[in-house]
Write a structure and sequence with these properties.
By secondary structure, the protein is of the alpha/beta class. It folds into 2 domains: about 110 residues, no CATH class; about 150 residues, NAD(P)-binding Rossmann-like Domain (Rossmann fold), CATH 3.40.50.
Length: about 280
C-alpha cells in the first residue's frame, strides 16, 4: 500500500517549487534487478533534495546531472520549455553498483508554473489508474476509489460525460482518438477499459499491448465484458500480430471472482478490490 510519506514528499516538493526551480528525476523504466521501481521520483533543488530513486552511485550521478541542468540558463519566456531527457544507467561495476539491472531516468526541469500539473501527475503518492470510459460503471468506480490509495486519470472521447466537480483524486481528460492517451500514461499505471463502444475498447487494448511491448510498465490492464467478448477481441488482436503470451496479460472479465451482481456499484466494488490486490502486501 502507499505510505503517507509519499504524500508528504509531494507536498514538500510543491512547496519548495513555489520558491525555486528544480529538476524532477523519475524512474521511467527498469530492466532486471534495480533498487526502485518505475514511477519512483526525486526532486533536485539547488541545495536540497526531495524523495529518492534508491540511493547509491546511480542517485549520486543523477543528482549531479540534475544540478548541471539547474545551472543552465532557463528557457526564454517566449520559448517553449526545455524538453525532458531520458538517460540509461546500467547498474554494474562501472557505476559502482552490483544490482546488475538497468534504470532509465527521465530528467525534466520544472518551475512554479508547473506545480498544478505536477500535483495532478504525482497525485500525492496515489498509485496511478487510467480509467477509459465515462459511463455508469465509470462513474460508480470513481466513487468506489475515492477513499483508496489511487490517483485516477479519467479519459473519454466524448464531451460532456464528466461531472462538473470531479473528486480530488481524479483528473478528467478528453482524448480523441481515445487510445492516443495510452502513450503518455504514468509508468506503473493500472488501466481499466470500459468505453461506450467495443470498437474503442479494442483500440485501447491494442494500444496498451503495444506499450507493453515497448516498455512493459503497465502491471494491470483490465477490460470490462464477458468471456465471449474477450474471445472475440482475442481473435481480432491475434490477427493484428499479438502473441498468446501478450494477450494473457489482459484481464477480462474484470473484478474479483464470486461477485455476480450487474449493478454499476457492485461491479465498481469488485473492480476496486481487484485493483487493491495488484498493490501487494503493505
Amino acid at each position: 500500500m502507499v505510505s503517507s510519506s509519499a504524500s508528504r514528499h509531494t507536498a514538500d516538493f510543491l512547496a519548495r517549487l513555489a520558491k525555486q526551480p528544480a529538476v524532477l528525476v523519475q524512474v521511467e523504466a527498469t530492466e532486471g534487478s534495480v533498487p526502485r521501481e518505475a514511477g519512483t521520483w526525486m526532486a533536485v533543488f539547488d541545495g536540497a533534495l526531495v524523495g529518492t530513486i534508491g540511493g547509491g552511485h546511480v542517485e549520486y550521478q543523477a543528482i549531479a546531472r540534475a544540478r548541471g541542468l539547474l545551472g543552465q540558463a532557463p528557457p526564454a519566456a517566449s520559448a517553449s520549455a526545455a524538453p525532458a531527457a531520458s538517460v540509461r544507467f546500467a547498474l554494474g561495476p562501472a557505476l559502482g553498483q552490483c544490482c546488475g539491472g538497468v534504470m532509465h531516468l527521465r530528467f525534466e526541469r520544472v518551475s512554479a508554473s508547473d506545480a498544478p500539473a505536477l500535483g495532478r501527475q504525482l497525485g500525492g503518492g496515489g498509485v496511478p489508474v487510467a480509467l477509459f470510459g465515462g459511463g455508469h460503471v465509470g462513474h460508480a468506480l470513481i466513487h468506489a476509489l475515492a477513499p483508496l490509495p489511487f490517483q485516477v486519470r479519467w479519459i473519454d472521447s466524448r464531451d460532456g460525460v464528466f461531472p462538473n466537480s470531479p473528486p480530488a483524486h481524479v483528473v478528467c481528460e478528453h482524448s480523441d482518438p481515445v487510445q492516443a492517451a495510452v502513450r503518455d500514461l504514468m509508468p506503473r499505471s493500472r488501466v481499466l477499459i470500459m468505453s461506450f463502444s467495443h470498437a474503442e475498447d479494442l483500440e485501447v487494448v491494442a494500444a496498451c499491448l503495444r506499450r507493453q511491448r515497448e516498455k512493459a510498465d503497465l502491471p494491470y490492464v483490465g477490460l470490462i465484458g464477458s468471456k465471449t467478448k474477450w474471445a472475440t477481441f482475442r481473435h481480432r488482436l491475434e490477427a493484428r500480430g499479438f502473441l498468446p503470451a501478450e494477450l494473457a496479460r489482459i484481464t477480462c472479465p474484470i473484478g474479483i471472482a464470486g461477485i455476480t451482481g450487474k449493478e454499476p456499484e457492485v461491479i465498481a466494488v469488485a473492480v476496486a478490490a481487484q485493483l487493491l490486490q495488484t498493490l501487494g502486501p503493505s
